[in-house]
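Structure tokens please, single chain.
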Amino acid sequence: MGKQIVVLNGSPRKKGNTSALVREFTRGAEEAGHTVTEFFLDGMEIHGCKGCFGGHSGRDCPCVQRDDMDKIYPAVKDCHVVVLASPLYYWNLSGQLRTAVDRLFALEEGDGNLLRGHDRASCLLMAAEGSGFEDVRTYYDHLMEHLRWKNLGHVLAGGNMDAGDIDGKPELQAAYELGRSIT
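Here you go.
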């Protein structure tokens, strides 16, 4: 039986280099029999976490804020794998993705932690003009440790500024293979 995979795509460009990695990952995962649901965060209304500790994991929409995170919460609750996809912005994830990740905290509040553990896994897909991925890898490793999710790996594609720069590069094949490798 295939797994449920959620992609949180933090790129502002639907046809950019990060989105190309997501397309190849998705192709590989679907060929392996998995179901992939992608959320293109830049096209969604998602507000920053207010740090109010008013969330309640047992609710369908656990955060007190009503916005498009209400579409993401049920998908994340039911998935096996969460893919974080982003261009590299100032040595970290894009604001779109960081905001969504921060808001997932609502799944940890209330009567049961529905985020940490639960045999979930994750992988990281990133494209960048440069190749300074060390800081974001440290952040991602700490996040995986905190969430108790298995780190399935990452594809970090440097040298890609303009949309389409990634075309023909080996990182696209690596993203496809990462998607296919999920068991």
